[in-house]
Specification:
By secondary structure, this protein is of the alpha+beta class. The chain has ten helices and 13 strands. Strand 5 and strand 6 form a beta hairpin.
Length: 342
């Protein structure tokens, strides 16, 4: 067991917090004196402990020179303040819980201010600004103002949004000239960001065509000296080479397979034309629908076969039963022949 350095009562509950030399803090129930929670995180003795945030959090200081903020509900350390070089012996919080004061053996006293609300307000303002910019970007794309849309997307530093604008440009009419004119109107820093995004897009086969289209414009119209002045240009270009080679090999295999398929299709057409009546007639490749019958009945042959049977029966079978002959005459003979289309 190690010594207990500090204790503090909760301002809202019947709970006591204690800190000891074993590097742990504990919460104790004052009714039955049971241990409710244990907090571990300091590398040395915990010298001070206080309740903050209306009893929902703990603030501790230790011999390791660290000040830690703990959330009681989750047992997690949500913030670590590292500004002292020696043991932090003094720790005190204001009544409003907006400031704390720490004193250390390094002869420094530091006043800390709670900026949680300020950070939340900044984050909320940032999200609102992002929403407004996204709406403005949608309006610019709808109005086909691609230069402003691309510049706004790059300012948001969102590669996926920039890719959406590039795809919209490539899907429009006269996409090649439009993409070239749009990219050349960008600033130097925007072109630099676009080159960095192309490295990411080129790693995906779905987006490689968009990346290669942008690279073609940049590499064609920008001199090598200007490209090399971009930050990390050599690294980006080296990262583009292996994926580009992989895409080219994949396209070559696809082209070879398509040419083989086209060759086989031409041979099938020639073979089909040779077996048909006319050499110049193209083979009918329309699929056989369900409305076309596979077989048909030749009624003339059926009637002829019936007459022959009746004639043979009348010549050689006079002793046979007339009723039996009548039943045979009433029978319908059906001859099945394949359809000419087959």
């Amino acid at each position: 067991r190690r010594g207990v350095w500090a204790v503090c009562f909760s301002p809202v509950d019947q709970v006591l917090a204690s800190s000891s030399a074993d590097g742990m803090m504990k919460l104790w129930n004052l009714q039955d004196f049971s241990c409710l929670k244990t907090f571990e995180g300091h590398d040395a003795s915990v010298l001070k402990v206080i309740f903050v945030s209306r009893g929902s959090q703990l603030l501790t200081s230790g011999s390791d020179g660290l000040v830690k903020l703990w959330t009681i509900k989750t047992n997690e350390c949500v913030k670590t303040l590292d500004a002292h070089q020696d043991k932090v012996w003094g720790l005190h919080g204001s009544h409003k819980d907006d400031k704390i004061v720490t004193g250390s053996a390094d002869s420094n006293i530091i006043v800390w201010e709670d900026v949680t609300e300020v950070e939340l307000a900044e984050e909320q303002a940032k999200q609102e600004d992002q929403i407004l910019k996204q709406q403005e970007l949608s309006n610019l794309l709808h109005e086909k103002k691609y230069v402003k849309a691309l510049g706004l997307a790059i300012s948001l530093d969102q590669p996926h949004t920039v890719l959406t604008v590039i795809k919209a440009i490539r899907q429009s009419e006269h996409s090649r000239d439009l993409l070239e004119n749009t990219l050349l109107k960008l600033r130097v820093d925007q072109k630099e960001a676009l080159l960095r995004y192309c490295v990411v897009w080129n790693t995906n086969a779905r987006n490689c065509l968009d990346a290669q289209s942008v690279l073609q414009v940049l590499l064609t119209h920008l001199p090598p000296e200007e490209l090399l002045q971009f930050q990390g240009a050599r690294t980006h270009l080296e990262g583009l080479i292996p994926y580009t080679e992989r895409h080219v090999e994949r396209i070559d295999r696809l082209l070879q397979a398509s040419m083989f398929l086209n060759y086989m299709w031409q041979k099938m057409r020639v073979a089909g034309a040779a077996s048909s009546v006319d050499q110049d007639e193209e083979m009918d490749t329309t699929p056989l629908t369900q409305t076309q019958p596979l077989f048909f009945m030749d009624k003339d042959k059926a009637e002829g076969s019936s007459d022959e049977r009746r004639g043979s029966d009348s010549d050689g079978g006079q002793d046979e039963d007339p009723d039996c002959c009548r039943e045979e005459e009433e029978e319908e003979v059906v001859v099945m022949e394949p359809c000419p289309s087959l």
